[in-house]
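Handout, page 2. Input:
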Amino acid sequence: MAKILVTGGLGFIGSHTVVELINAGYEPVIVDDLSNSDPKIIDQLVKIIGYKPPFYKLDLCDEQGTKELAVKEPDIVGIIHFAAFKAVGESVQQPMKYYRNNFYSLLNILNAYDGKPVNFVFSSSCTVYGQPDNLPVTESAPVKTAESPYGNTKQIAEEMLMDMQKAGSSYKVISLRYFNPVGAHPTALIGELPIGVPQNLFPFITQTAIGKREKITVFGDDYNTPDGSCIRDYIHVVDLAKAHVAALKLMETETFKGYDVFNIGTGKGSSVLEVIHAFEQSTGEKLNYQIGPRRGGDIEQVWGDVTKSKKVLKWKTELDLDTMMQSAWDWEKYIAQNPL
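Output:
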């Protein structure tokens, strides 16, 4: 089986992608520094896939340690790079933390396997678009000034990867521009597990519903949207995980050369208030929420045109908002009864 290195492989998206890689016949090798994940997720993965995948605890900002990893795992044919800090609000408050981690980790893993024919999937973000002029936003839309340091790290990382390609790199590269991943695995054995106060909407919703949090704050109701709250394109994490497999499959073809980028979303937007009400309707749980001021770094509204992903990547979403809600709620109830 082809070995795929999954950096940040015990995180939310990474752990689901490990499962989908195995389902597709790949052999994942996990790297994670556990700064925003739990080592017990390995045990949860074993319950789903039936064996324990190789795991290395490593901070990829450690250049020497990353070089040693490449020596220990020389047969890697693909890398899926998730290892990055990802909270928009936190990045506004602590920008240097984001620039250091997100750039050093990328540079070190690229350098470690430089010269080898590796298929590289980069975990990018719709934040590279800033606030788009036209919606739905396409991959050819002009990249505007990022609204947050997090978004800026994704913009610059994509530029780094494109420049690397122009210089004749041995890598093939696909950047997947995610919209908003949510939900959990249908077994309810893995899902989003934020350390401390959640930075994203869905875990805040489920933690409020189960009583861990007192209430949800909706950051602004005065945006130029139908109900005044921000609009996002929410995608089920299992659908998102399958997009990484599709990206690897595309790069394995002889026709794929160099570098490409794809929007990974559903192609439609939902507002924060719509999501809150959809959760209440889907689960029967009432939520305590309040309206607060706008949050720095937030984009007013964005959702993606996914035509290219359907046509070229041969991938599309299959799971709806109701499934996202119910799976996230099932996961929250599972960890309440089975603390990790």
